[in-house]
């Protein structure tokens, strides 16, 4: 005869919550594994400098495959929120030139951002709304009213981490179409800046110098980007002014 005791059993609801969190746990584990196993060593100026000729030769011999590999690498880097995306952007500019690299960066980064956006919405939306309640709902309402303008500002001005801007709109109920459009167009200026720096790496290699990855924060680069962000907010300012006039 088998003895019976208190058995802790998970309910279907609890199992569902765990299943929802599983994708994000996989993403987190992948990012940690990448760092622990030395992945950051491959996303560096030194790696590109020391292997530049071999990388260039392979790219020229397998151009179509190189494009796909680069876009996929960028997609994975953004999807897993891996550090080192700046070096991928520089590498893209070095291999493909400014204009082509910008296009590939934007496609890969947007695809990765959409992926993590969908996972965050699937795993965390109900969790946060159940706990934060009315406060989050008020934020959600304000953000959704002018979601595209806010998305463009968040993408244009590099003040917030890219991974954070990927997650927050998912928790505020931003529509996927708006999120994708805002991400795609909002990251073009930054991608262009880093790709253009990358396209000039050959000259830096010859001089033994390193690129200035903080160039995007220089006044001559940051000021036009802030100007674009202000322009993106014009519809929001106009709507608030118009509504105040009606009050």
Brief account:
By secondary structure, this protein is mainly alpha-helical. The protein is built from 14 helices and no strands. The chain has one domain.
Can you tell me about this structure?
The structure is a single chain. By secondary structure, the chain is mostly helical. The protein has one domain (40-246). Helices cover 79% and strands 0% of the residues. It has 14 helices and no strands. Helix 6 packs antiparallel against helix 10. The longest helix has 35 residues, at 98-132. The chain is globular, with a radius of gyration of 22 Å. The termini are far apart. The mean pLDDT is 81.
Topology diagram in text:
Elements: H1 12-36, H2 45-50, H3 52-61, H4 63-79, H5 85-96, H6 98-132, H7 134-145, H8 147-156, H9 162-171, H10 176-186, H11 188-199, H12 201-207, H13 219-232, H14 234-246
For the record, give the distance between the C-alpha atoms at the N and C termini, rounded to a whole number.
78 Å
Radius of gyration: 22 Å
Shape: globular
Strand content: under 5%
Count of distinct strands? 0
Any key phrases for this structure?
247 residues, mainly alpha, 14 helices, 79% helix
């Amino acid at each position: 005869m088998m003895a019976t005791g208190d058995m802790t059993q998970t309910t279907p609801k609890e199992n569902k919550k765990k299943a929802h969190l599983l994708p994000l746990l996989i993403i987190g584990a992948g990012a940690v594994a990448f760092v622990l196993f030395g992945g950051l060593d491959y996303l560096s100026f030194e790696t590109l400098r020391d292997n530049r000729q071999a990388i260039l030769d392979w790219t020229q011999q397998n151009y179509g495959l190189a494009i796909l590999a680069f876009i996929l690498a960028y997609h994975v880097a953004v999807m897993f929120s891996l550090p080192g995306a700046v070096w991928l952007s520089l590498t893209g500019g070095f291999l493909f030139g400014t204009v082509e690299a910008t296009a590939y960066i934007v496609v890969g980064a947007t695809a990765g951002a959409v992926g993590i956006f969908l996972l965050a919405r699937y795993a965390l939306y109900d969790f946060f709304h159940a706990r934060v309640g009315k406060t989050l709902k008020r934020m959600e309402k304000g953000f959704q009213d002018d979601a595209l303008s806010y998305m463009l500002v968040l993408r244009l001005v590099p003040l917030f981490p890219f991974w954070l801007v990927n997650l927050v709109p998912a928790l505020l109920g931003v529509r996927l179409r708006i999120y994708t459009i805002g991400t795609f167009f909002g990251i073009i200026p930054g991608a262009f800046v880093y790709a253009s720096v990358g396209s000039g790496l050959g000259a830096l290699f010859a001089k033994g110098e390193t690129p200035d990855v903080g160039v995007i924060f220089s006044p001559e680069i940051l000021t036009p980007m802030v100007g674009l962000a202000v322009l993106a907010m014009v519809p929001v300012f106009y709507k608030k002014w118009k509504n105040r006039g009606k009050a």
